[in-house]
Amino acid sequence: MAEETIFSKIIRKEIPADVLYQDELVTAFRDINPRAPVHILVVPNKLIPTTNDVDTDDELALGRMITVAKKLAADEGIAEDGYRLIMNCNQHGGQEVYHIHMHLVGGRALGPMVVG
Ligand code: AMP
Predict the structure, then answer these.
(1) Which residue owns the Cα nearest ligand 1 atom 12?
(2) Which residues form a coiled coil (predicted)?
(3) Were 105 and a residue from 17, 33, 36, 69 both cysteine, which residue would form a disulfide, CB within 3.0 to 4.6 Å?
(4) How many angstroms separate the alpha carbon of residue 31 from the centre of ligand 1?
(5) DSSP at 9
(6) Which pLDDT score is estimated for 114?
């Protein structure tokens, strides 16, 4: 069984976060250390440590992460100008929190790299 991270506590509302969206599969909240004017994390409610650990059973939640990111990009007014969706995996990917998450970053021209 993988070890829980701070994201499980955010999902269960045990610690504060700026939660923008939650349903039975995913939760989205603002990154505590934003690297762009809009920087939101979209996470599955189920603990999956890395993208190496995803299973076919997770496909619904993973698809929901993208449709929620799309909705939030529209809500934040960055859909038309554009944005970037990023998932980091393990050490070389720069992953710090071992509960998979999709970074939604935008609100400015991002250049070649943002999160890492
Ligand atoms: P990664 O490097 O892809 O694992 O990204 C982890 C992200 O989680 C970083 O951008 C952190 O700023 C963010 N983060 C860590 N703790 C919190 C928290 N308590 N609330 C919101 N974002 C967090």
Answers:
(1) 33
(2) none
(3) 36
(4) 6
(5) H
(6) 59
